[in-house]
Amino acid sequence: MRLPDATDVLVVGAGPAGSAAAAWTARAGLDTVLADAQVFPRDKTCGDGLTPRAIAELDRLGLGDWVRGHTVNCGLRAAGFGQELLLPWPGGSLPDHGSAVPRTELDDKIRATAQESGATCIDGVRAVDVERDAAGAVTAVVFDLGKDKGTHTITCKRLVVADGVRSPLGRILGREWHRDTVYGVAGRSYVKSARTDDPWISSHLELRGEHNELLPGYGWIFPLGDGEINLGVGALATAKRPAKIQIRPLMEYYASLQRDDWELGPDLRLPTSAMLPMGGAVSGVAGPNWMLIGDAAACVNPLNGEGIDYGLETGRFAADLLVSNENIEQRWPAILTEHYGLAFSIARRLAGLITVPNLLSTAGPIGMRSHVLMTFALRVMGNLVTDEDRDVTARIWRWAGKRSIQLDDRPPFSA
Ligand SMILES: Cc1cc2nc3c(=O)[nH]c(=O)nc-3n(C[C@H](O)[C@H](O)[C@H](O)COP(=O)(O)OP(=O)(O)OC[C@H]3O[C@@H](n4cnc5c(N)ncnc54)[C@H](O)[C@@H]3O)c2cc1C
Fold first, then answer.
1. N or C: which end of the chain has fewer CB within 10 A?
2. Mean pLDDT calculated for residue range 230-255
3. Which residues line ligand 1 (CB under 6 A)?
4. Ligand 1 atom closest to Cα of residue 275
5. What is the pLDDT of residues 286-299, one digit of tens each?
6. Which pTM was predicted?
7. What is the share, in percent, of the chain residues with pLDDT greater than 90?
């Protein structure tokens, strides 16, 4: 395929965030190029879990029936500290169901949707540099085409950076990830299971290591409905209290504990691990004509590590801003803060507490004994409080967020 030389909107990174942004800008009639370093379909280390909020975004994109054709779950089975609770998705302003689709398939489908919407999609091209004008606006992005193939430059009027956790292009533009704020380390694998059609996703909130030590994280089992489950473990850490955990051996151990209950096959397929920036703990999210979205902007829930819904949402918000022609440098950090500032501030404060030694062993059993508290926790952990919600949980969450953000040395998305 001949590579394009110029475009209005250039989106770098074709995960959920970038593909959603490209679909929406193309649908709005903007000339759009969506570029990714990898060749699709490609894998991405992930639990593959789709919260009701992610389902709402996939519905908006026209992918609701497609996702529901995979698997549908009705809520969370939370286990730990001698308790097991079944917590249905609350419904309300969001769908009352979630799903789980392997990322190889999901990301390929959203990218294809961007293409069908009119975006030009190119893959196997790695963004390695930018050209800027005197005012700091990006005028072009330079792509490495692979071994012995040289480079190719695409000029653009606006740039959306959706290049994930490490955001190499974001770094060139000045993005900084603050690891003194809580972040995650997590691993996932696929395993055969007789319970692949279980209608609940499961979280084991009392995650223990081989020496029975309590760890600041959780294990998950997300049934995929295709003969396998996604099994993984995740832990929280800060620069001060790094997670002293080896993710892959821990995942094997966790699988051994769940093997009988879930009738698991002998092998963990494709075990991989990754870090997760969380709760808007990055600065430099926008410039004169560019913005960071999804993981690049640390839009990941600090309480459970999910970020597909934020990726899809920030893709849509970014497209709306590009269509409106408002000032990107001023408006983008403000838009992220309006939508996520309060929730991220309180969520990352609570997540930080989980890393404090002995706190989890005291608070965990108390929390798990209360269905009301855990129903509240599911709602806020699952990012299921929308801007429109006015009920008691939503009001408490926003109130706590307002108090929390006042105490932040560095509020989400700020310098
Ligand atoms: C172990 C683990 C489990 C998780 N489980 C869940 C879960 O169950 N549910 C959930 O909602 N979230 C989960 N997450 C988080 C979720 O995976 C991310 O939040 C989500 O993928 C963010 O999407 P994105 O589009 O921002 O980035 P990505 O999906 O990472 O996409 C970034 C894209 O950018 C491309 N790219 C990178 N650099 C360049 C470059 N220089 N040039 C061109 N392209 C480039 C990459 O190839 C990639 O395709 C999990 C994360 C981890 C690590």
1. N
2. 92
3. 12-18, 35-38, 44-49, 126-127, 162-164, 168-169, 186-188, 232, 274, 276, 294-296, 300, 305-309, 311
4. 53
5. 999 999 999 999 99
6. 0.96
7. 79
